[in-house]
Amino acid sequence: MAGHSKWANIKRQKARVDAQKGKIFARISREIIVAARQGLPDPAGNFQLRTAITKAKAAGIPQENIERAIAKGAGTWTGDGGAWETIRYEGYGPGGVAILMEAVTDNRNRTAADIRAAFNKFDGNLGETGCVGWMFEQWGMITLPLPADEEQFLEVLLQGETEEYELVTDEELGQTLVAVKVAPLGLAKLTGLLDAAGYPIESSELQWLPLNTVQITQPDQARQILRLMDALEDLDDMQTVAANFEL
Fold it and tell me: Which of 93, 128, 154, 180 is the most exposed place for a label (fewest CB within 10 A)?
């Protein structure tokens, strides 16, 4: 029985890993589709697409899948699939927490219904466009391992007109990373400078950052907010979720 139980646990664990990998593949593939649709289908001339492809390769997505996603975005794919678009959603979580979301979808009604159901389940409210967007600013964020030569690293950051940077700890990897903040229009330039200087970039993307934060001190409220955030991030169409709370 012990052997059977162990095998069953292994199968369940593998199923969870495969499911999570499938969600990641789908999410990044949609990002490639939208990037190719909004700009050139050539990564050399489309920074957003180049970034999405880099993310796809880091996640282990096969080249065939990447090429298919680019073809769908460019309109040259003859297989199945509708028109994909990026939509922003806004709402409030427990305690008046502001939540800003971006989804990539081929079915607006399905996506809105899924998001509304998550808000209703965890005491939140899906709001109208613009209700919380003014509480956030978009910035370019780059993360990379802590460089050995800080002086040389700072010179590159100055060339790229960096706003600021800070050290963060990746608890899963157990290593210190540098999070670099730059104006959205400067993200491509700074990423290129860091790449040319040989720095291994973990991620380079646009993020919505709150202008101010709400302090959450009640444990029950904190649990509801975290459950709501998890539920939103787990939605198939969701790309990014930003909120302005601090625990």
Answer: 128
For 232, the domain range is 85-134+211-246
* Class of residue 23 by CB neighbours under 10 A (exposed 0-12, middle 13-18, buried 19+): middle
Quote the CA–CA distance of 189 and 47 in Å, as a whole number.
10
Angle at 24 between CA 20 and CA 29, to 5 degrees: 150
- CATH label of the domain that carries residue 90: 3.30.70.980
Number of domains comprising the chain:
3
E-strand ranges in the chain read 85-92, 98-105, 125-126, 136-145, 164-170, 175-182, 203-210, 214-215, 238-243, 245-246
Cα 16 from chain centroid (whole Å): 20
Which residues of the chain carry a pLDDT beneath 70? 1-21, 38, 77-82, 171-173
Q: Are residues 130 and 216 in the same domain?
A: yes
Give the model confidence (pLDDT) of 158-210 as tens digits. Answer: 999 899 998 887 766 677 889 999 998 888 889 889 988 998 888 778 889 99
* Residue where a domain terminates, one of 28, 47, 74: 74
Is-contact 112 235, C-beta < 8 A? Answer: no
Cα dist from 119 to 104, 107, 124, whole Å: 18, 19, 4
Residue 79 covered by a domain: no
